[in-house]
Specification:
GO terms for molecular function: monooxygenase activity. Keywords: Monooxygenase, Oxidoreductase. It is built from three helices and twelve strands. A hairpin with a 2-residue loop joins β2 and β3. The strands form three sheets. A seven-stranded antiparallel beta sheet has the order 3-2-6-9-10-5-4. A three-stranded antiparallel beta sheet has the order 1-11-12, with no helix packed on it. A two-stranded antiparallel sheet has the order 7-8. It has one domain: Pnp Oxidase, Chain A, CATH 2.30.110.10. The chain is of the alpha+beta class and 157 residues long. The chain is globular, with a radius of gyration of 15 Å. Helices cover 15% and strands 48% of the residues. Bound molecules: flavin-adenine dinucleotide and nicotinamide-adenine-dinucleotide (NAD).
Amino acid sequence: MDDRLFRNAMGKFATGVTVITTELDGEAHGMTANAFMSVSLNPKLVVISIGERAKMLEKIKESGKFAVNILAAEQQEVSMLFAGQLKEKREAEFGRIKDMPVIKEALANIVCNVHSTQVAGDHTLFIGEVQEIVLREGTPLTFFEGKYGQLAEEQLV
Ligand code: FAD
Ligand code: NAD
């Protein structure tokens, strides 16, 4: 099957946008991801999917922990920074929760320890056991058909 057909089909599934963060040897690393799902309430588990070529893959394997930061509508630039979509180099500023780097002003910071991993084709699924959650009010950044967006006013009632 053609890759573009697959990506176009997956792009019909509108999602929020997250930045996955972790820290290794005192260095914070972030990566934009929309492959994120809630898995289990008891215990509290979530899953992320990281491509085999992403630097994030080895970093999470080694650190054994990650945070999922759900971006607010105003944070498209943050998403672009951590997806390598900005032309210029930028310093990233991180907050800290439970000794982990997190994205400030995100709608949710969800700090996890790796519970288990599953290699699936050219991605690795990391199931995370949730350790800490911080929430903020706001509306989400969205991703649909390969484009960023936000919810229309009438969708917010
Ligand atoms: P890099 O490409 O090195 O880092 C990513 C960017 O973040 C670089 O520009 C880097 O400068 C910056 N950065 C990282 N840490 C810091 C820091 N400490 N200070 C300053 N800048 C920093 N890929 C997946 O595998 N799974 C997904 O679910 C997924 N979803 C995506 C959803 C969207 C909407 C988009 C746009 C992309 C998605 N990607 C996903 C692709 C992924 O975001 C990119 O391939 C990304 O570049 C891979 O990051 P990396 O870990 O290889 O690190
Ligand atoms: P796109 O049209 O490539 O993405 C549409 C949808 O296709 C995404 O939401 C995702 O569900 C799926 N997808 C895209 N690339 C994939 C991959 N390598 N593996 C599994 N699923 C994938 O949108 P775009 O604006 O061209 O994306 C920007 C960049 O970010 C591209 O390089 C894309 O490959 C990457 N990306 C990767 C993933 C992922 O690895 N899960 C998800 C989204 C975007």
